[in-house]
Amino acid sequence: MTTPSPQLCTLGAADMGILRKDDASMKDWVYEVLEEAEKRRYVPYQHRIIQEFRDLIEQEDDVLEGFTQMFDELSDPGPVDDYEKMLAVFDVIIGQAPIFRNLSQVAFPICAVLAGPMGTRAGFRMFSDARVNAVIKKMLDTWFQFLSSPRSRYVLSDGPTGWFGPAAVAAMPNFAQTFVCDPMAPYYGFKSWEDFFIRRFRPGIRPIDSPTDDTIINSACEATPFRIEYSVSETHRFLLKGYPYSILRMLNNDELAPHFVGGTVYQGFLHQFFYHRWHSPVNGRVVKTVIVPGAYYLYIPCSEGEEIPPDGVPVLDDRAITGSQDFLAQVATRCLIFIEADNPAIGLMCFMGIGMEEVSTCQPTVVPGQRVRKGDEIGMFHFGGSTHCLVFRKDTPVSFFCGSSLGQRIPVNAAIGRVG
């Protein structure tokens, strides 16, 4: 098989709906939340996990140093300029549902607060620390419980910042005709923010291309192609910008990972407004599912061509967070679903659902031994934008149709490639 050069989509922040740390809309929103947080700074936190977070920072000398330095390293930290304000803002955020505010990334509110600190040397150290990740997981779990409750439905309104208001309707046209809902019912019939987020397409909205043609590979997600790379290495040192994929790291050194050394990776990004369920790209049988715990806010915005030093400390840069999707595929929380395709030319393949920042709940809905057909649901993300990969063996002669479509949304179940 001819080995094409890697293809990398270099979309700008605005193209992918991603908020950069200098985004004016983000700063305005953070100021608003900080004003609410300031009212609570001298009373007990409303969420116990925030006090636990503060205890970790203040009782561990190296963590206190790290969370102090990450703000000190910023030339313009913005409204949240120390860890006390950060925690006060978090206490507000995890008791609220995301509002709709233009097309900005305010639907990623924690990431909006951390956009600057997570790109510093100290931020890299802290967000790669197991103790910090453990308390962040508890914080996100607390928030997820709220988002899964009826109390979170208040944002499913037709108000200015509601998800059925004028701005949201313009961003998500024909919503009622596209998704399963009841426009005449309160909150369109959704039971919670989470129920709204994992909404389903109405029957027939996303037809399955070539359902019986086993040479065709279909899109597993409603996603924008980000990168296609052939001859992926077994292991590789991280480089800063256009990170090389390291297949063993991506697949968490699973016993099946060696099958994919030298293989092919197709990666695509799911915008926060996209459909967030996963569908089988092939006909076959589920071999194995694996949940890989990972880092939540680990971000390497470094200078092009520079290699990360042995101590793992990067150089601060202003690269958009979604530009690091290839890096996140190797360090973030992710779900691996190994499928043995009916077509022996494909054989064993792997779907990877990869959580980004707030989106760190990746749920498979299939079990080992289960038969899947193209278009069958295999899992879902919970909350926010995400990324995913399809991974193929070295001997799988796969080629993709979307080289000219990098940067454009490809519907779930659409044909994206061919084998042979």
From TrEMBL:
The keyword Thylakoid does not apply. Keywords: Decarboxylase, Lyase. One of its GO terms (cellular component) is mitochondrion. One of its GO terms (molecular function) is phosphatidylserine decarboxylase activity. The keyword Lyase applies. Signal peptide: none annotated. Residues 47-172 form the L-tryptophan decarboxylase PsiD-like domain. It holds the Pfam family PS_Dcarbxylase. This is L-tryptophan decarboxylase PsiD-like domain-containing protein. GO terms for biological process: phosphatidylethanolamine biosynthetic process. InterPro entries: PS_Dcarbxylase, PsiD-like. It comes from the Eukaryota.
